[in-house]
Amino acid sequence: MRGPHNIWRLIRTGATFERTGAMTVALEAMEVSPRLRFAARLLGRPFRFLGLKGDPGLPPVTRAITALGPAYIKFGQILSTRPDIVGAELSEQLKYLQDQLPAFPTEEARARIAAEFGQPAEDIYSEFSEPVAAASIAQVHRARLRHNGEEVAVKVLRPGIERAFRRDIDAFYYAAKWIQRLAPFSRRLRPTEVVAHFDSVVRGELDLRLECAEAAEFAENTLKDQRLKVPKPHWAFSGRSVLTIGWAEGIGLNNIAAIEAAGIDRAELGQRVLILFLRHALRDGFFHADMHQGNLKVSTDGDLIVYDFGIMGRIDEYTRRVYAEILMGFIRKDYRRVAEVHFEAGYVPPDRDIDEFARALRSVGEPIFGMEANRISMARLLSYLFEVTEKFGMETRTELILLQRTMVVVEGVARSLDPRLNMWEVAGPVVENYIRTSIGPQALIRDLWRTSRVLARYLPKLPSIAEAHLQALEQKPQQSRPPAGPGLGKIILISALTSLVTLTIAGSILHLI
């Protein structure tokens, strides 16, 4: 599938942007230099007739993206949360991609439900509405369960969506491969691995059984979070292509006028969106990774409602600690510590100069502080970071792609509610609390306790392991034996005793705490 025929798909992408007028609009919105704009237009104009026409009733960029297919729509959804990158006008136009795409017929949805569960939709739902929202992968219907009368949302995959995504992603793989060949400097960014990561995320989103499991886990983790509502899924009425989950009534976060009319504090809501995301990422290592306005609502009493769990992110505890220390270092302007953490984690090659790296980080961080939040250009900041990573040979960390992307989206959502919001000021208390509980003395004792428990499981095997090694040593010729000193059996015995002592001490201290 990843052969030269993908050239046609890539040419048609550029041609579609040129034919719909999206090329000019997009480049101007992102403040691309006139020279590059001219070059792009010059290259795209000969192929203009090959472009897709799209819906003439839509603005140019939205028209081009919807014509090109679901993978492009996903990218457009991300840009819709970044007015600081694409401008307020284009950002507002792209919000159309979040949940207002053309729907497929309700009868097709009913047929898909019947095929999934082996019974007509009418036997499961006493009420089943026309589509209330349609996105790139699925559409949602409002329904009522027949057996208990509960109001639910029913998510149904679009027909043929798997094939459509496969086509787009194949073209992305092909483009990434040639980018690496033609631009060797891009290899450190690992474009192929980035596409592979996106591919794995999409594959998970195309199986609604996985989304059902993610929704259930997220609901359990956030049960005690105040002013947050998470609809719970219904396993009995969910499958590969259909998901049934509790209905969430509220105002979409993309409807600023309605939020103001309801008397909801936009600034506080924006801060809460950012705080909850950071808390879930750091505390749980499991976070909603598609938090654009189309997946967020606010109830009339001000509670934040999160739904659509097709893309969720996970980060292990070690990475969480590294990320928290990096954030805290920037917040405290301790660029030396930020540099040390990068080196300790292996993010920067060990042969690079740590002092020089710290100075480079200062050049990225300092412009953020002491500046009005609405004057900070995320595009410029990312440009600076790119220059630093290129200079110091840092490679793209695929395990952090989803976290970093979601942080950008969440900041965009929060900024849409409060344009003067400063991400660093809001993040400070959350990160400090995580460091206090996860990196301080109490965390050290907890780590010792966990390590000791793992070692303790092997204690019953230690005598047989020691005996086997001693017998092996005795069977070797005298000249091949190691010099006099503590035998392997003694070393193993000492290790076992040390493990037991550590286990006892850590357990006692943890119990007292």
Automatic annotation (TrEMBL):
<comment type="similarity">
    <text>Belongs to the protein kinase superfamily. ADCK protein kinase family.</text>
</comment>
<protein>
    <submittedName>
        <fullName>2-polyprenylphenol 6-hydroxylase</fullName>
    </submittedName>
</protein>
<dbReference type="InterPro" id="IPR011009">
    <property type="entry name" value="Kinase-like_dom_sf"/>
</dbReference>
<comment type="pathway">
    <text>Cofactor biosynthesis; ubiquinone biosynthesis [regulation].</text>
</comment>
<keyword id="KW-0997">Cell inner membrane</keyword>
<keyword id="KW-1133">Transmembrane helix</keyword>
<feature type="domain" description="ABC1 atypical kinase-like">
    <location>
        <begin position="97"/>
        <end position="342"/>
    </location>
</feature>
<dbReference type="InterPro" id="IPR050154">
    <property type="entry name" value="UbiB_kinase"/>
</dbReference>
<dbReference type="InterPro" id="IPR010232">
    <property type="entry name" value="UbiB"/>
</dbReference>
<keyword id="KW-0472">Membrane</keyword>
<keyword id="KW-0831">Ubiquinone biosynthesis</keyword>
<keyword id="KW-1003">Cell membrane</keyword>
<dbReference type="InterPro" id="IPR004147">
    <property type="entry name" value="ABC1_dom"/>
</dbReference>
<dbReference type="Pfam" id="PF03109">
    <property type="entry name" value="ABC1"/>
</dbReference>
<keyword id="KW-0812">Transmembrane</keyword>
